[in-house]
Amino acid sequence: VQLVESGGGQVQPGGSLRLSCVASGFSFSRYDMQWVRQAPGKGLEWVSRIGRKGTTTYADFVKGRFTISRDNANNTLYLQMNSLKPEDTAAYYCERVVDNERGQGTQVIVSS
Questions:
Q1: pLDDT 10s digits, 32-73
Q2: Distance from C-alpha of 89 to C-alpha of 37, rounded to nearest angstrom
Q3: Nearest alpha-carbon partner for 7 in 110, 101, 108
Q4: Which of 10, 36, 74, 97 has the most Cβ atoms closer than 10 angstroms to its Cβ?
């Protein structure tokens, strides 16, 4: 199993970023996937989940701002993040839900 995140960076409050996670080594389309994050000095925090057929759920603190999606043909998970806030600063990880297998993460910094 390999999960490789990308797309992080530094952005001003109110800005947008699109995170990607390319999966390999397993049948991506058969698994529910999710994004989690870890802010400096804090524990892992669940952000959003997408089922095999595309059903989505979100943490309250990202509802209306973030959109999770997947491209099963290209084994890729996405997280579109809009209206970013300083409190969204964290390392973001994609995870396979069944066993919490996750990638190395991509850093998001929201700061003016």
A1: 999 999 999 999 999 999 999 999 999 999 999 999 999 999
A2: 9
A3: 108
A4: 36
